[in-house]
Structures are given as structure tokens and as C-alpha cells.
From TrEMBL, chains A, B:
Protein source organism: Lentzea rhizosphaerae
Lineage per the UniProt record: Bacteria, Bacillati, Actinomycetota, Actinomycetes, Pseudonocardiales
A Pfam family reported for this protein in Swiss-Prot or TrEMBL: TetR_C_43
Ranges that cross the membrane: none
DNA-binding region coordinates: 37-56
Entry protein name: TetR/AcrR family transcriptional regulator
Length: 192, 192
């Protein structure tokens, strides 16, 4: 087959996959994890059931793939946010704000069953570790610049930040998220 | 029946219930949630299967009861810690330390399946709300005494504290827990 034809197939596959992920996420958000079937997903995506099964074996694996894409997107966003800021203190603040925003927007979308499934997922644990490592490096840089306390290890401070900012999932306004970031940063300030 | 006899039965029932809860918790810790059956629990508790079913309908409900008792115990502990301390700042610090200790000791006991089951549990949500309300009231008292910032609502600060201190579940030493509490308290200090 000519190269162009392969590329067309590859593009098509990506588009179908993308459509399956989005359809499933929307259906689960609407009906709950336990009320969505592979047949409904195929119908709503506009493909045959047999085609759907060529891509995914069950609803859970579709959701994991969907979640994996969101996580990759969030990590890329945080890296971009970090690289736009200048100076160690600003970089740290920008990433903490970005992470708090993600926490706020990620919560309350889905039901408890889905959260239970996703939180057992290794890709979630892996992504949390990546975010925590990124924050740890930024904390270390800021500590070296004298903008963050150096009496506690950067790794421990990063653990503190990630947990504190997950609280953004319970906050109702963007202003509250800004205040949460300010309080978290106050915890990081050099001791007098 | 005479009153004494009723009391004896009541005491016996409580003891059997207690034995069931502890046996189940130990079995689940050892084998994992999905590998424990009602028959094993009855056998290890030293009672008949029929008796066990008079107390609980399945393994999950035993675990919920066990977890409920632990939560009640933790809340009572935090109230005692609070009431032993004098002065608003000390009370807040003592309760934050107590909560961080509980977070540290509660983690890593069980497998992910069990955590998923328990976290869908309303009694967990209710207990978290009670802890958060207690911390909110202590924060409000300390803010009035000028020992905590008053530019952020006590409720938001309490949400920050609870989430930040859950990080203790990932810390390996008591010293690290002390440092986490210190960093969290630093976030609460009045802005200059």
C-alpha cells in the first residue's frame, strides 16, 4: 500500500478512537458507569459493535484510555505553564495554581463507582508521581533561591502541596482556589 | 426475664459482635477483601455460620461496621486531645497533630479494593465532615485570638488543613508528620 494510504488509515483509526472515548465519557457522565453498555457506545459513536470491539474489550478499558488521555493532557498543560513563567518562585506558583485548577475541574464530574475504578488505576498513581516530582524540583529550585523554606525536604513539601491543593476539588469558586494556593504557598515560605 | 439476664445477653451480643469485627479485619488485612468468606469468618471467630448471619448479612457490612467503630474511636480521640489542650492556638495544633497521626496510621493497612468500598461509604464522608467542622471551629477561635489569619474563611482553612494532613499517609516517620503539621500551621499564620 502507498504511504499516503497508510497515513489515511492511521488518521481514521485515531478519529474513531477519539470519538469512542468522548462518546463513552459523555454517556457515563449522563447515566453512571454501571448503566452504559458497549452496544450503546457503538450506536452513539455511529459504528458497529464489531468495530467497537476491535478497539476496546469493555467499557472500563475505554474509560481508562479516556482518563489516560486526560492525564497526559494535564501533564502537558502543567509543563507549558511552568515553562511560560520566569524565576523559581513564579514557576512554582504558576504550577501550583495550574494543579489546583485541574483538581477543581476534575472533581464532581462522575459518580463514586467510576472514581473507585479510576483510582485503582496505575496510570493515576504514575501521573500523581510525575506531578509530585515536578513540584519537588520547582520547590528545590525556589529553596535554593531563598524563596522557599529549606528546613524541610523538597519532597516532603511537594507531598504537602499536592495534597493541600487536591482540596480545590471541594471549593466552589475560582477565588477560593486562589486563596487555597496562597495559603499553601504561605506554608512554604522560609521560617523567620 | 430479670433485668440482669437481659444485661448478660446484651454484653454477650456486644462481645460476639466485637469478635466478628476484629476477626474480619484481621482476615481481610491478611488475605485481601475478595479472598475472605463468611464461612472463614465464622470459623475463625469460633461461632456457627447461622449465628454469624444473625449479626451480619455479608463481609462488606462487617467491614463497614468495623470501620464505623474505628471512625467513632478516632473522633473521640480528637475530642479528648482538643479538650486536654489550653488556649486556641494550642488546641488547634493538638488536633491537627492528632489528625495527622490518625492519617498516617490509617494508611497502607488494606488493599485498594477495600479502600474503594470504604470510600464510597457515607459514614466516611460524615466523619470527614465532623473532623472538618471541629477544625473549622478551632480555626475560628484561633483567628479571633489573632493566632491564625483572618483573611480566609475558617471553613476554607479547615478544608486546606484536612487535605494537607492526609499527606501524612504517605510519610514514613513521625518526624516527617511533625514537619507536615508545622508546614500546615505556617500556612495558617496571620499574613504580615
Amino acid at each position: 500500500m502507498p504511504k499516503l494510504w497508510n497515513e489515511t488509515i492511521e488518521t481514521h483509526r485515531r478519529e474513531v478512537r477519539h470519538a469512542i472515548l468522548n462518546t463513552t465519557a459523555a454517556l457515563v457522565a449522563e447515566r453512571g458507569l454501571l448503566n452504559v453498555t458497549m452496544s450503546q457506545i457503538a450506536e452513539q459513536t455511529g459504528i458497529g459493535r464489531a468495530t467497537l470491539y476491535k478497539y476496546f474489550q469493555d467499557v472500563e478499558s475505554i474509560l481508562r484510555a479516556w482518563h489516560g488521555e486526560r492525564i497526559a493532557h494535564h501533564l502537558a498543560h502543567l509543563i507549558a505553564v511552568r515553562d511560560r513563567a520566569t524565576g523559581p518562585g513564579e514557576r512554582l506558583e504558576a504550577v501550583l495554581e495550574g494543579f489546583a485548577d485541574i483538581s477543581r475541574r476534575s472533581r464532581g464530574h462522575f459518580d463514586a463507582d467510576l472514581m473507585a475504578v479510576l483510582h485503582r488505576d496505575e496510570q493515576v498513581t504514575g501521573a500523581q508521581a510525575q506531578v509530585q516530582d515536578m513540584i519537588r524540583d520547582l520547590v528545590a529550585d525556589a529553596a535554593q533561591a531563598g524563596e522557599v523554606r529549606d528546613d524541610v525536604e523538597p519532597g516532603e513539601l511537594a507531598t504537602f502541596c499536592v495534597h493541600a491543593l487536591i482540596a480545590a476539588g471541594n471549593l466552589s469558586s475560582e477565588d477560593a482556589v486562589r486563596r487555597l494556593v496562597a495559603v499553601t504557598l504561605a506554608g512554604l515560605r522560609p521560617a523567620d
